[in-house]
Amino acid sequence: MSDWRTIGVLGGMGPAATVDFLQRLVAGVGAARDRDHPRVLVDSNPYVPDRNAARAGGPSPGPALAAMALGLVDAGAEVLAMPCNAAHGWAGDIVAAIAGRARFVSIVEAAVAAVGNARRVGILAVGATLDAGLYHAPLLARGIGIVDGDLAVVQPLVNRIKAGDTGAEVQSAMRAEALRLVTAGAEAIVAACTEVPLVLRQADLAVPLIDTSACLAMATLAAARR
User: Fold this and answer.
1) Backbone angles phi, psi at 20, to 5 degrees
2) Which domains does the chain have, with CATH numbers?
3) Cα first-last separation, the chain
4) How far from 36 is each of 26, 213, 217, CA to CA, in Å?
5) pLDDT by residue (tens digit) across 177-194?
6) What is the value of pTM for the model shown?
7) Rounded Cα distance, 117 and 147, in Å
8) Which residues, other chains included, contact 91 with Cβ-Cβ below 8 Å and sequence gap of 6+?
């Protein structure tokens, strides 16, 4: 028997962030050979309804996410992960669909657990994540203050990253927004969109960068280990 439960990944939101997450899963194992890794099933579905549009009254991603989750579980997945923060606004649909059959690992819970002793954090996120209060509720419940990133800055940058632009201009602009939050009192920065770590690194900041993709990868491996 494998030392691992089979992992299912609800991906494609966006594809580059999904690939980045998979790379983190591979690196996190510390394997010496192929057989040391867990089996990973991936549904990279870029046709899930847009999360930002859904918050504005568009079609809900919930049914598509539930169908993806069921497909992965039917194929043998025992632990599910979704490397998209905004889509966690519909995590309830996933959990309901797979009830009693598999475990869903929350990127939000994994990231909040990594905040540590910071008294105030900056949130770099897209509109759907901010509108749903995905990080605000658990952080405020712990008495941690929040400084939101400027959506007028972050959303266009994320759109450019999704379009394949991870160049120096995008990197510089994302770093500048993170530094603005630090100047405003943030003692840690939460990269609350899985595109953000594609252009922002810990070396760019003097305060901790909570990389939600990395947090999810480690939490997923922990849940998958027998």
Assistant:
1) -60, -45
2) 7-106+214-224 (3.40.50.1860), 109-211 (3.40.50.1860)
3) 10
4) 10, 22, 16
5) 999 999 999 999 999 999
6) 0.97
7) 16
8) 82, 104, 106
| CA torsion, ordered 64, 94, 24, 219, to nearest 10 deg | 170
For residue 133, pLDDT over 80 is answered with yes
Catalytic residue annotation: 84, 193
pLDDT at residue 199 in the model? 98
Tokens 């690992």 — which residue? 105
Residue 103: beta bridge partners? 79
Percent of the chain with pLDDT over 70: 100
* Alpha helices per DSSP H over 44-101: 51-55, 62-74, 91-97
Q: In what order do the strands lie in the sheet with 188-191?
A: 145-148, 120-124, 188-191, 209-211
Peptide bond into 14 cis (omega under 30): yes
